[in-house]
Amino acid sequence: MARVRVKTEFDLDSPTLVEGLPGVGLVGKIATDHLVDTFDMEYVASVDCDGVPRVAVYDGGDHDVLAPVRIYADESRNLLALQSDVPVSRGNGTEFSDCITGWLEDRDVTPLYLSGLPAQDLEAGDLPDVFGIATGDAGTRLEDAGIDAPPERGVVGGPTGALVNRASENDLDAIGLVVESDPQFPDPAGAKRLLDHAIEPLAGIDVPTDDLVDRAEDIRDQKERLAQRMQEASEEESTQARPMRMFQ
């Protein structure tokens, strides 16, 4: 049965979840991995939903086997993180988005869904633009945080798009964050911008991010193979935002 399997019970009060499915520039994954590592978040649940590949993940220097998609918790910060080491396909219709959304609703979680917007003309030193969309009543949180609305009509695709769609259908409070990103390579600068400008104020947390830029080359080396896989992935697997004019 498709479900989120809780391994360790945790006590959070209407928490915020940061989603890190792989996509353009791997910005969501890099940002979420940074939160998990920086805050030493606890592995509390595995995601066993349709669309998640049946593979086993292992780490260097550790005998334990991990699920490819996992949920971590930080009780002191009232924070959850969805970490994925593999591309996730929407696969059979809406099963994956239904599985995740039902679990979030049951625990009164507000998700922050993260996407990259391919940007071809960013110069070195330029700050990537970040904008937000919302479902339910979450739009007020974007306004309070000073996060701009999109400058033009567009679409969020891949599994993250399916999650935003399902949140809207269920009238769940959810936020979609989109940041300009490198369309070819892992983009730590885009992830830093997401954390500094959007995730920090929306989740009410303070995240040190200077090392994301200091370690940019190492991060790119670590994520390069997955980034290449995402470039080759179908639209169903790759989370990204695109202007609607691309379809007209």
Provide structural commentary.
By secondary structure, the chain is of the alpha/beta class. 33% of the residues lie in helices and 25% in strands. The protein contains seven helices and twelve strands. Strands 1-3-6-7-2-8-11-9 form an eight-stranded mixed beta sheet, with helices on both faces. A two-stranded antiparallel sheet has the order 4-5. This is Proteasome assembly chaperone family protein. Pfam families: PAC2.
Quick summary:
This protein has 248 residues and is α/β, with parallel strands linked by helices.
Query: What is the quaternary state of this protein?
Result: single chain
Following the backbone from N to C, one meets helices and strands in this order, namely: EEHEEEEEHEEHEHEHHHE
End-to-end separation in angstroms reads: 40 Å
Q: Taking strands numbered 1, 2, ... along the chain, how are they ordered across the largest sheet?
A: 1-3-6-7-2-8-11-9
Number of helices: 7
Total number of β-strand segments?
Answer: 12
Measured as a percent range, the helix fraction is 25-40%
Q: What would the principal axes of the Cα set say about the shape? A: globular
- The CATH superfamily is PAC-like subunit
CATH architecture: 3-Layer(aba) Sandwich
User: What is the average per-residue confidence, as pLDDT, rounded to a whole number?
Assistant: 87
Broad CATH class: Alpha Beta
Total number of domains: 1
| Helix-strand category | alpha/beta
Largest sheet: 8 strands, mixed
Instruction: Could you tell me the CATH topology label.
Output: Rossmann fold
Low-confidence stretches: none
InterPro entries: Proteasome_assmbl_chaperone_2, PSMG2_sf
Protein name: Proteasome assembly chaperone family protein
Pfam family, one: PAC2
Keywords: Proteasome
